[in-house]
Design brief:
12 helices; 355 residues; alpha/beta
């Protein structure tokens, strides 16, 4: 199952709206076939592994998620496993999708196949946290990335921010983008940095969706995002009353425009994320800036924080990584648990999960 989970991880950022699933088919001490969900969610991991195995009669299939039991764009994987004659199926998680949700396990058992559940379930749930959250809560899993100095600053008083962290850290961020369905920034960061938000120098064959939160469409479609929207997807979240000329210009550039409620002159971020989940996105990497980061935290929408810290100090006159959170009591501060920490050249990466 650990091997199947490692295979599943290869699909992160590429399988939405489907989960990233891995499958290993074993007979005796031989691996007959391996597979993971392919880009766009098809074919499924089980189908790939069965095709590689060729003959799987009497074998055991290790699958990181309950095999699907419904007819969609492809026949159910449960039917494929039954037809292949496997004698045992071991799964890590039950699929919460109402179209499956135990039906796959039941179909396998009804066909006389031995089923073992909940093997490495914790690890599997962590791997597919985005899919699970979208299905059960209607929201994507949000990772907030912060690249700061030791004193939590992201730019000097003059706005200089390139580069706070070193080349190894920046390369890690590009790899991180590839494991998410989308990368998201606010209009303030877009105006200040004119980012591209693609994963570069990684040999990537795909790019994440690039999301711009821009209520009034202040950012120009002549920017790097707009100039590349026809090559790699750009989705712009804006209010319905954003200037019509700006909407037309972004559409002409090739961006997808998604209107969102904006009460009191601010985008409703919960509504925005629900819209994105409705489009199938499961994992979103938020790369700033401080205003959006604070708004996401205040709305309890951040599931994970990845902080890359450089051994530098800027001081109070620099730009803080987070905008105001409106806290009066320490007890009200959102709490995150440290999950991992390691060096990236001269910098330090810390991964924190919502407590």
């Amino acid at each position: 199952m650990a091997h199947a989970l490692a295979l599943a991880a290869r699909g992160l950022g590429r399988t939405w709206p489907n989960p990233a699933v891995g499958c290993v088919i074993v007979k005796g001490d031989r691996i007959l076939g391996r597979g993971w969900t392919q880009p766009g969610g098809r074919p499924h991991a089980e189908r790939r592994a069965l095709d590689q195995a060729g003959e799987a009669r009497g074998a055991t299939a290790y699958v990181t998620l309950e095999p699907c039991a419904h007819h969609g764009k492809t026949p159910p994987c449960t039917e494929a496993l039954v037809a292949a004659g496997v004698s045992r199926v071991v799964t890590a998680l039950t699929d919460p999708d109402p179209r499956v949700s135990g039906k796959g396990h039941a179909m396998l058992r009804a066909a006389g196949i031995d089923v073992t559940e909940n093997v490495l379930a914790v690890q599997a749930a962590e791997l597919n946290a985005g899919f699970l959250k979208r299905v059960t809560q209607g929201l994507p899993f949000v990772t907030l990335k912060l690249a700061t100095t030791l004193d939590g600053r992201i730019a000097t008083a003059s706005g200089e921010s390139r580069w706070i962290t070193g080349p190894q850290a920046r390369r890690t961020v590009h790899a991180l983008r590839l494991t998410h369905d989308a990368v998201m920034v606010g209009s303030g960061t877009a105006l200040a940095d004119d980012p591209d938000l693609t994963a570069r120098d990684m040999g990537a064959t795909h790019q994440p969706v690039r999301i711009l939160l821009d209520r009034a469409l202040r950012h120009s479609p002549a920017s790097r995002l707009g100039a590349s929207a026809a090559q790699s997807p750009v989705w712009v979240i804006h209010s319905a009353d954003a200037p019509a000329a700006a909407q037309a210009a972004w559409s002409a550039a090739g961006a997808r425009l998604i209107p969102c409620p904006a009460p009191a002159g601010q985008l409703d971020l919960t509504a925005a994320l629900r819209l994105l989940a409705g489009e199938g996105l499961t994992r979103i990497l938020s790369e700033g800036g401080g205003t959006i980061a604070a708004s996401l935290i205040r709305a309890r929408l951040v599931d994970e924080v990845i902080q890359i810290t450089a051994g530098k100090l800027i001081g109070a006159e620099g730009t803080a990584a987070l905008g105001p959170l409106g806290l009066d009591r320490l007890a009200d501060a959102p709490r995150f648990d440290l999950r991992a920490q390691h060096r990236l050249g001269a910098d330090m990466l810390s991964r924190w999960s919502l407590g």
